[in-house]
Design brief:
The structure holds two protein chains of two kinds. By secondary structure, chain A is mainly α. In chain A, about 65% of the residues lie in helices and about 0% in strands. Chain A has helices at about 1-15, 20, 35-55. In chain A, helix 1 (about 1-15) packs antiparallel against helix 3 (about 35-55). Chain B is mainly α. The chains are: A mainly alpha, B mainly alpha. At the A-B interface, helix 1 and helix 3 of A face helix 5, helix 10, helix 11 and helix 13 of B.
Chain lengths: ~70, ~475
Amino acid sequence: MKRLYFLTILPFVGMLGFLPLVNRVEPFVLSMPFVMFWIVLWTVLTSIILAVMYKLDPRNKEDEEQ
Amino acid sequence: MNSALIIILGFLLLAVFLGIRSTKGKQMDLEQWTVGGRGFSAIFVFLLMAGEIYTTFSFLGGSGWAYGKGAPALYVLMYICLSYVVSYWLLPVIWRYAKEHKLVSQSDFFVKKYNSPYLGVLVALVGVIGMIPVIVVQLKGLGIIVSQASYGAISMEAAVWIGAISLTIYVMLSGVHGSAWTALIKDIVMVVVICFLGIYLPLHYFGGFQPMFEAVHSANPDFLRFPDEGNSVTWVISTVLLLVLGFYMWPQVFSSTYTAKNARVFRKNAIISPLYTLMLLFVFLVGTAAILTVPGLEGEDVDLALIRISMETFDPWVIGIIGGAGLLTALVPGSLLIMSTATLLAKNIYNVFAPKTSQQTIGKLARLLVPVVSLVAVLFTLHGGTTLSNIILMGYSLMTQLAPSLFFSLWKRNFVNKYGASAGILAGLATVAYITITKTTLVDLFPFLPAAWNDVNTGIIALVVNVAVMIAGSLVTKGKQK
């Protein structure tokens, strides 16, 4: 469960914590202003992190959860 | 009537038809009408929740902010995405408790957890007060779409009335089953329309995405990043955190978790939902494309950006399809909001003061209240004047006040009791009202803080007051209960 809690915090740190450092327009990445790219990147990473959490979470293996 | 309006009308009739059809063969008691008999699979719960979260606000308000404010519009994408991380933990717990106790509304949850029907009345009232602004947003959105698509033939006022009447008829006939089906159509049409506009407009006017951003950037070098003051980085971090806390406090979102058939549904949906928020990116692209293409919209009118640039670019029949998509994005959330409001008023307020009323009568009363709620919302719509984004932010600061007592109630060794919870909510609401009226900032209260703190969302002050009063109140009244 400890790993799950760590993964829960990660998207918040990534998306919000680094914002003061990445708040810039240039360089453009994938045609987007840098700060926009950063937020999009972390949106995708959030999905991936949640998928990893789902795999690691023992509760999702139980089938009797009706 | 032009071809745009005819197509929009077609969408409306389709939605009503689907709504009526979906109720066939089901006995419509209160549990069926509001929580669909708790039998929805992952896909349906996903659609229903997406149906509530992506409203006319994301359509028109999102592009409006991208047009009027630039980068700060990204806050919408950020808070929705991060809320799904919270949903992974929160929703299964809420769902299980609701199923065990056969709960129908959000207020029921507080009543059971704190064993106090009067706390339920308070929570229901907060919900009703918080939801009215969001219904107003839907009606305003409907009004904008219909009046703009009529090319001036229908006034904004008439369009709001038409929208409200259609919405009322739709809700009274169908209930939550209708919303889930229309939500399916709505999401397909909305995604197609948004992606098309978000790709086509930048290519058509600027020859690409980067040239568009570069053009905006050279016209205004600070537009595509968070500004140093106002909607700054401090503002966006504090606002996003606050909105994430409030995300699942909305009564209509809360009670739509009840429709799921098992708890895993939520964890599964949490994985794909953040990717779905990327759709908002296309909304921002539309708003950004409009900056240099249809300049000069100010104040409330920024919400017209999406529809204006479309009208500038396309034939009326395309406007009809865009308008139809917009109509559905108002109809689905609007119907869920009105339904939740009516259910709260009937079951969690009226029923507490008239406990002998039969459940059948309560069900009937809930339906009869639908037109009343719509009427109130119409009056607010026609007399208020601010952007969609600002209305939503205000509703959120009210709803977030329910977060502390809810989160504490999930804790096994919760020491907060009904007195503390009620006092905390009331103190939080009073603080929101005070701050809104006097426009107090954090630095006004604590002059020793650096100026950057000025941009901290003041909802946080209300939340701190709420928690402090809640804990103090619970400790003082300890032992009074049980």
